[in-house]
């Protein structure tokens, strides 16, 4: 079954991965009819997280086995595998040459994808369920199993709490200009927070837990996914 999906930054492709699937599927959203245009092989692995660097045609996936795999999107070949987590990477983001991963061991790790070398490691008290990086500043936002949200600066050890939902945070996403972010999770709420304080600007209730979220590149749409449906919200300024 599907566990994770990723919309490309140009909105022309959708990546989907999950448990006991033979591949990560690449869907063509620009074609006249929806179809799979490529398969990224991962036989025997269960995908938990996806990230992409489309400038270099690279796709990244974190698996429950602890493996992180890198593919070349042009020919679907495996570039490399490396062991990132003993319990699997639950969430992942890519910024420049760095891969940031968070997992159930409550540890945030940063890897240099060129050398497959771990550069930084930050230990937290709660499991890391979701990650998003700021498009404007050198920081990564973490969503925790205990409901807290932490802003970790990537150039040093500075970190601080910027929110507490009171229940598990399952999805986070910065707006394209970094002025705000959206958080979703087990509290059945879509919450918008201002940067950098984390103050809640507004909230929208849904009828069940919200598993994931995304923000459109034009800064005007928020997309959320729940167990049996997806919702699209339009933002007016």
From TrEMBL:
Domain of life, per lineage: Eukaryota
WD repeat copies, ranges: 55-81
Any one GO CC term of the record: cytoplasmic lattice
Record flagged with keyword Repeat: yes
Subunit structure: Homodimers. Component of the subcortical maternal complex (SCMC), at least composed of NLRP5, KHDC3, OOEP, and TLE6. Within the complex, interacts with NLRP5, KHDC3 and OOEP. The SCMC may facilitate translocation of its components between the nuclear and cytoplasmic compartments. As part of the SCMC interacts with the SCMC-associated protein ZBED3. As part of the SCMC interacts with the SCMC-associated protein NLRP4F. As part of the SCMC interacts with the SCMC-associated protein CFL1/Cofilin-1. Interacts with FOXG1/BF-1; the interaction inhibits TLE1 interaction with FOXG1/BF-1.
PROSITE patterns: WD_REPEATS_2
Protein's cellular compartments: Cytoplasm; Nucleus
Name the record gives this protein: Transducin-like enhancer protein 6
Family listed: Belongs to the WD repeat Groucho/TLE family.
Family annotation (SUPFAM superfamilies): WD40 repeat-like (SSF50978)
Keywords attached to this entry: Cytoplasm, Nucleus, Phosphoprotein, Repeat, Transcription, Transcription regulation, WD repeat
Gene Ontology biological-process entries: developmental process; negative regulation of canonical Wnt signaling pathway; protein storage
Listed InterPro entries: Groucho_enhance, WD40/YVTN_repeat-like_dom_sf, WD40_repeat_dom_sf, WD40_rpt
Pfam families (alphabetical): WD40
A molecular function (GO) term: transcription corepressor activity
Organism lineage string: Eukaryota, Metazoa, Chordata, Craniata, Vertebrata
